Amino acid sequence: MTITKKVTFIAKKDGVKKMKELLTAMVKPSKAEDGCIFYDIFQCKDRPEKFFAVETWRDEAALDGHRNSEHYKVYKSSYEQYCEDKYSDELEVLG
């Protein structure tokens, strides 16, 4: 069963540029991971401090592999100083 998530990040006012760099750096290596079906980062045009990661993984094992990857560890150890708020939603694909 696939897992689809939307993770919302609200960057601190002085952290927008760095947050964008950290999140953008996640895209290419995440897409190359075994079990990644979809992975992209979005930034709101009218609220540049607001970012979304939308990701779909083949299964829980693939998502666990992502969470144990080197690029995820770099992001995880760095993002909090630039982020005001973060929350995620698990999504159900309809249709």
Automatic annotation (TrEMBL):
Under InterPro entries, the record lists: ABM_dom, AI-2_Isomerase_LsrG, Dimeric_a/b-barrel
Keywords in alphabetical order: Monooxygenase, Oxidoreductase
Which Pfam families did the record assign?
Answer: ABM (PF03992)
Q: For the ABM domain, which residue ranges apply?
A: 3-93
| Molecular function GO labels | monooxygenase activity
Fetch the PANTHER family from UniProt.
Answer: ABM DOMAIN-CONTAINING PROTEIN, QUINOL MONOOXYGENASE YGIN-RELATED
What is this protein called in UniProt? Antibiotic biosynthesis monooxygenase
Q: Which organism is it from?
A: Sulfurimonas denitrificans (strain ATCC 33889 / DSM 1251)
Instruction: Give the organism's phylogenetic lineage.
Output: Bacteria, Pseudomonadati, Campylobacterota, Epsilonproteobacteria, Campylobacterales
